[in-house]
Design a protein that fits this description.
Blueprint lengths: L8 E3 L6 H4 L8 E3 L5 E4 L3 E15 L2 E8 L7 E4 L4 E8 L8 E3 L21 E7 L7 E6 L6 H6 L4 E5 L2 H4 L1 H5 L1 E10 L11 H6 L5 E4 L6 E6 L2 E8 L6 E5 L4 E6 L2 E14 L4 E7 L6 E7 L19 E11 L19 E14 L3 E6 L11 E4 L3 E8 L5 E5 L4 E6 L2 E2 L8 E4 L4 E7 L5 E7 L2 H5 L3 E7 L8
Length: 479
């Protein structure tokens, strides 16, 4: 390792100042947004000083010894636009090595860009540099550690932050007029002001904490004008917890997923987010004034067997509350169109990936892709840039697995053989136990090594990850 027009249905797995935060600002490159925890590009560039810390950190009205970016959970939100140059000076004040992954961004997986094979030792620094492509879609992305073997621990302890690309979706008049709220969904386990180490079964199943927060708070309130719109931008930043979301008295109108905007709003009763997934929904404030609760409904991500069952909350859990304020004279309508979903080219190859698990002598429970645990010295899949492939992801295990591909987003073609009706770009997709998902991906722009893996991060650390090499020629070998 290098030092509103569809029938209602359930949508399943679409898939203090800055000095006090340890964040440096460049007068040339950044300006302060209205929220001091938001860093916004200016003049086509952004420069950020970001420190990974360990120590007492505010969380849900208490203090706990956490890992964090800049002493806050979540870390600062970084906002850029297509074409921006990003310079991020990263310092590691943790007692162990770490690195950064820019989840969902289409930027190089090599050099000092989105390179998960880099390692930043304790007490050292590294400057990340990359350019957001001019054609990059607007969307809700995020950053977190990705040093194999330590990923689940460091994310569970609090190392998450939003990375937003502004663009065409933000310019849709109805979307621009909506009240925008970001919601980072993240669970913790705190005992005596510390995070206790997980047991073997917690590692095998994927760890879920009893303290469930939204932006580091418990049950925050969001106000919205009667007759207005709320634009809710959601990130599941938990290592293993799923969020089955339902807003009391209101449908949710999905307008964007991991990879950007849908073509038009899609009406939902519920929204299921697996770890790593993001979604943007609009809420119409067209009910009687009052308080309405955003619930996390029970969801069992096990399917029998030794590890199956008993996950998550047995009863609905309140996550946040929507409160109506004054009423607008003229109600805001839903947008008729929200984006354009780019088509992929002709298919050149199909592959199959099987997700499973087994017991190995001396290692205990491991998680596998095509029967193999992760090996940083092995190239598992070779693909050719400029081509389109279909990947069938089959889950033969007893636990649900969200499958994540770095660098290049994909479109879902079918689930369990049934064609997918919703056209969307994704980078993470839930593959339920016993199920299959067929996805189509176009490989573009950047040669080099990247990875694909389960985004239950304990499963990634226990082996469910492979290396994909993007090549300018070849791509005929591997999985």
């Amino acid at each position: 390792m290098t030092k509103a027009k569809h029938s209602r249905r359930t949508f399943l797995a679409m898939g203090a100042g800055l000095a006090g935060l340890g964040l440096g600002l460049s007068a040339r490159a950044q300006t302060r947004a209205p929220d001091a925890d938001v860093l916004v590009s200016r003049g086509g560039a952004i420069e950020v000083d970001l420190e990974a810390r360990f120590g007492p950190t505010p969380l849900a009205g208490q203090s706990a010894r956490l890992f964090s970016y800049g002493g806050r959970v979540p870390g600062p939100r970084i906002e850029v636009r297509p074409g921006d140059e990003v310079t991020l000076r990263f310092s590691n004040a943790l007692p162990e090595p770490t690195n950064l992954h820019f989840h969902g961004l289409h930027v190089p997986p090599t050099g000092n860009a989105d390179n998960v094979f880099l390692e930043v030792p304790a007490g050292e620094e590294l400057t990340y540099r990359f350019k957001i492509p001019e054609s990059h879609p607007a969307g809700t992305f995020w950053y977190h550690p990705h040093l194999h073997g330590l990923v689940a621990k460091q994310v569970f302890l609090g190392m998450v932050g939003l990375f937003v690309v502004r663009g065409e979706l933000d310019q849709v008049p109805e979307v621009a007029a909506a009240r925008e709220v970001f919601a980072v969904l993240k669970d913790f386990q705190i005992a005596g002001g510390r995070v206790p180490p997980p047991g073997p079964m917690e590692l095998a199943r994927g760890r879920e904490g009893s303290l469930v927060t939204v932006n580091g708070e418990v049950e925050p309130e969001w106000s919205v004008e009667g007759g207005g719109l709320l634009r809710l931008r959601l990130l599941n930043a938990s290592t293993a917890r799923f969020y089955r979301l339902k807003l009391e008295g209101h449908p949710l109108y999905l307008i964007a997923t991991d990879g950007g905007a849908l073509e038009e709003p899609y009406e939902l009763d519920e929204l299921l987010l697996a770890p790593g997934e993001r979604a943007e929904v609009l809420v119409r404030a067209d009910r009687e004034p009052g308080h309405y609760t955003l619930w996390n409904l029970p969801y069992d991500r096990g399917r029998g067997g030794m590890m199956g069952g008993g996950f998550g909350d047995a009863r609905p859990r309140a996550l946040a509350h929507l409160v109506y304020s004054c009423r607008r004279r003229t109600p805001l309508p839903l947008p008729e169109r929200t984006g354009r979903v780019r088509e992929l080219g002709a298919l050149v190859r199909r592959r199959r990936f099987v997700l499973g698990h087994s017991m190995q002598p001396g290692r205990g429970m491991v998680f596998t892709i095509n029967g193999q645990v992760f090996n940083p010295r092995r190239i598992d899949t070779r693909v050719r840039l400029g081509t389109v492939e279909e990947w069938e992801i089959a889950n033969l295990g007893v636990l649900d697995h969200p499958f994540h591909l770095h660098t290049n987003p994909f479109q879902i073609v079918a689930r369990d053989g049934r064609p997918e009706r919703l056209r969307a770009w994704k980078d993470t997709v839930l593959v339920p136990a016993g199920g299959t998902v067929l996805l189509r991906v176009g490989f573009a722009d950047y040669p080099g090594n990247a990875v694909y893996h389960c985004h239950i991060l304990e499963h990634e650390d226990l082996g469910m990850m492979g290396i994909v090499r993007f090549e300018t020629s070849g791509g005929a070998s591997g999985t």
